[in-house]
Design a protein that fits this description.
InterPro entries: ACT-like_dom_sf, ACT_dom, ASB_dom_sf, D-isomer_2_OHA_DH_cat_dom, D-isomer_DH_CS, D-isomer_DH_NAD-bd, NAD(P)-bd_dom_sf, PGDH. By secondary structure, this protein is an alpha/beta fold. It contains 17 helices and 22 strands. A seven-stranded parallel sheet has the order 8-7-6-9-10-11-12, sandwiched between helices. The protein has a six-stranded mixed sheet with strand order 14-13-15-16-17-18, with helices on one face. Strand 9, helix 10 and strand 10 form a beta-alpha-beta unit. Helix 14 packs across helix 15. The structure holds 1,4-dihydronicotinamide adenine dinucleotide and 2-oxoglutaric acid. 1,4-dihydronicotinamide adenine dinucleotide (NAI) binds next to helix 5 and helix 7.
């Protein structure tokens, strides 16, 4: 049974499926203090949040079983991604479900800002009838500068075009083709800032975008410009905005988000030129249902070990590629596990070589799985998320390469590890109808399946050596399921791989090692 902790308000309908799953216990605890969250997280397998819950490093540290943090929405700035990655916890979001709602909200703010609707309504409620004070401006033929033309920025552009606005956009990742398709003029930041009658930001909050719109930028804007932020507080420097409004440079601002939420004693909210909502961009029935459904499905997939798509701390793998790589996943992990269990010394390098059909794909997801297989021999709680990070942190060099030589197989993966004392390698393939097979250990060709408990023994090729091992195992009632032997030359270096039904007692291992011809023995669990 998996415990899924939900600490922010999520749509009931959106979480219906996960709540009814037989293998899931859903615990809803909203409005927790930080200390209460530290307690509640201890035995949770999954945490589902919106933006209120702050999933800080100490929360992640406290979690003993946490496998996934799911953000029902886009922005993950309330989650310490680095801490989650380090601990191998997958962070997923719901990038698409609230796009339309947030674009519509931004558009509502745009019109409200242009026509002073909130201020006029407020005045009317005070018993006033002041038509002169609320003369607005048309959107028609005005320039809207969009900073960040992603999902929401693009939807906003379409709506602005319908209102006959000139739309220009700055986004470092915007292609000419996409700008043309959207009917948007591509601009650099300075142009977008200088030409906008309305300027709206739709980027994530990152180190690069923090205070992207600062005092310097305000100075370059048109006099009387209007500013919108329905993305994240902090993209616009709030103090600089306040001053620009006071100086008359900016004639109005519409804010859905703040550097600190909820804002306390926020000077901007005392200005009549500022209209604001309490982070309502995604607050529609439809958006909340969409994002809750999306993250619930992701959490179910992750807990059940099934493929998932919206991980924030894993490079995204297109579904088509994921499907093509799926058959190789087991082989990749087992090769990593095998080679690490037959190596001694401090690990310094892992070289993964791909050949044949598999080499035609982007193999980086498979390399992460190989790393997981290798490192899980040395470390606890290694998974595809933290394996590259852990390798780097421990100074293990990872080399991924492709070669034309597939050793006669249609596909071929070889994992070689270099340690402080030796170099070891294990290679394998997928055999049509038989699945993953190990085909080479160091320089010895073998044919070993990738399941169960194995003994890997290095010995001298002398008569009686194999028999003596068999006799000892038999004397302790250990059954040998399959056996493979290989040698370099008669009387020379040789190996045995025995598939046995249960692990060996320590005493028996010692007895086998004492046989004269035996040089080394490794137990391998696959
Ligand atoms: N107010 C609300 O309730 C909501 C706010 N949001 C926020 O809206 C923002 C945008 O969300 P989406 O459109 O879904 O994200 P997205 O990832 O689709 O788009 C972000 C765009 O910003 C661009 N970008 C990144 N760095 C940039 C930079 N330095 N300068 C200019 N452009 C840059 C990216 O290339 C991308 O195209 C996010 O901050 C998100 O958290 C999202 C949903 C609801
Ligand atoms: O959960 C919410 O209402 C906030 C949505 C949001 O800001 C986001 O998705 O980035």
């Amino acid at each position: 049974m998996y415990k899924v902790l939900i600490t922010d308000p999520l749509s009931d309908l959106g979480i219906e499926k996960i709540s009814q799953a037989e293998d899931i216990e859903v615990v809803r605890k909203t409005g927790l203090t930080h200390d209460e969250l530290l307690l509640a997280i201890e035995d949770a397998d999954a945490l589902m949040v919106r933006s209120q819950t702050k999933v800080t490093a100490d929360v992640i540290e406290k979690a003993k079983r946490l496998k996934v943090i799911a953000r029902a929405g886009v922005g993950v700035d309330n989650i310490d991604i680095a801490a989650a990655t380090q601990k191998g916890i997958i962070v997923v979001n719901a990038p698409d479900g609230n796009t339309i709602s947030t674009a519509e909200h931004t558009f509502a703010m745009l019109i409200s800002l242009a026509r002073n609707i909130p201020q006029a309504y407020h005045s009317l409620l005070q018993g006033e009838w002041n038509r002169k004070a609320f003369v607005g401006t048309e959107l028609n033929q005005k320039t809207l500068s969009i900073i960040g033309l992603g999902r929401i920025g693009s939807e906003l552009a379409k709506r602005a075009k319908a209102f006959r606005m000139n739309v220009i956009a700055y986004d470092p990742y915007l292609s000419d083709d996409r700008a043309e398709k959207l009917g948007v003029k591509k601009a650099d930041l300075e142009e977008a800032i200088a030409q906008g009658d309305f300027i709206t930001v739709h980027t994530p909050l990152t180190k690069e975008t923090k205070h992207l719109i600062d005092r310097n930028m305000f100075a370059k804007m048109k006099d009387g410009v209007r500013i919108l932020n329905c993305a994240r507080g902090g993209i616009i420097d709030e103090q600089a905005l306040y001053d620009a409004i006071q100086e008359g440079k900016v004639s109005g601002a519409a804010l859905d988000v703040f550097e600190s939420e909820p804002p306390r004693d926020q000077p901007l909210l005392t200005l009549p030129q500022v209209i604001a909502t309490p982070h309502l961009g995604a607050s529609t029935v439809e958006a909340q249902e969409n994002v809750a459904i999306d993250v619930s499905e992701e959490v179910l997939h992750i807990l059940r070990g099934e493929p998932f798509k919206n991980a924030v701390n894993l490079p995204s793998v297109p579904a088509e590629l994921q499907q093509k790589l799926q058959p190789y996943q087991e082989l990749a992990e087992k090769l990593g596990k095998f080679v690490s269990q037959i190596s001694k010394g401090a690990l310094s390098q892992i070289t993964i070589t791909y050949a044949g059909e598999v080499a035609e794909f982007d193999v980086s997801p498979l390399s992460r799985t190989v790393l997981k297989g290798v490192l899980s021999h040395y470390l606890n709680n290694v998974n595809d998320v933290n394996a590259p990070h852990l390798a780097k942190k421990r100074g293990v060099q990872v080399v991924e390469q492709k070669t034309m030589s597939s050793q006669g197989f249609t596909q071929y993966i070889k994992v070689e590890v270099k340690t402080s004392t030796e170099i070891r390698s294990v290679a394998g393939t997928l055999l049509n109808g038989f699945g993953a097979r190990i085909t080479k250990i160091n320089d010895y060709p073998v044919d070993v399946n990738t399941h169960g408990h194995l003994l890997f023994i290095e010995h001298q090729d002398l008569p009686g050596a194999i028999g003596r091992v068999g006799t000892l195992l038999g004397s302790q009632n250990i059954n040998i399921a399959t056996m493979q032997v290989g040698r370099q030359m008669i009387g020379g270096q040789a190996i045995m791989i025995l598939q046995i039904d249960k692990p060996l007692p320590d005493k028996l291992i010692e007895s086998i090692k004492e046989i004269n011809e035996i040089q080394s023995l490794y137990e391998v669990d696959l």
